[in-house]
Amino acid sequence: EVQLVESGGGLVQPGRSMKLSCAASGFTFSNYGMAWVRQAPTKGLEWVATISYDGSSTYYRDSVKGRFTISRDNAKSTLYLQMNSLRSEDTATYYCTRALPGDWGQGVMVTVSS
Amino acid sequence: DIVMTQTPSSQAVSAGEKVTMSCKSSQSLLYSENKKNYLAWYQQKPGQSPKLLISWASTRESGVPDRFIGSGSGTDFTLTISSVQAEDLAVYYCEQYYDTPYTFGAGTKLELK
User: Fold this and answer.
1) B106 at the A interface (CB within 8 A)?
2) pLDDT at residue B112, as a whole number
3) Most buried by CB count within 10 Å: which residue of A37, A46, B3, B13?
4) In 3D, which of B76, B88, B103 has the Cα closest to residue B11?
């Protein structure tokens, strides 16, 4: 059974940084591209970033380019999202996904507020 | 960016009814080299993460009941639930994965009549 467990969320002040992790199990992590998708409170879904199976290629939405970095550690079956210069509009539940389309984790809440 | 437009935004249904919802993309999602449509459907219940129902416009994921039927090609797509059950009350999203930024529709919320 595919399991994706996100961690690292919480309350952070505007302009500060936060790093999310996603621990994967139940499949061969190194064979799959991975992604982060977010959902602001009571809003729809917004793709954030994607990384290839080996980490050699990464893609970002324009609003996070230069601020967020997606990365992975295939030896640890873990996906990361480093978020810098956070803004109030980054407030959302962040989901880790196995490729897109694919399986999703349960999500982790990130609140950017002073 | 490819814009995904879903209609209706909400729909009140009774158990046993047939339901159809639409998803239109601002450009074709049909890749000519493999003849595949890069369109997926998700179901999100309150307090839960989205669940993938259908990929490639019409391929049901393993374990998804056969009352969920995806159809369409190019820019016009439909999700049909042949006989709605109480557990199907949720928000349904379409997503294009033809090109980045991958984009989602705003969702169709199924509610009880």
Assistant:
1) yes
2) 86
3) A37
4) B88
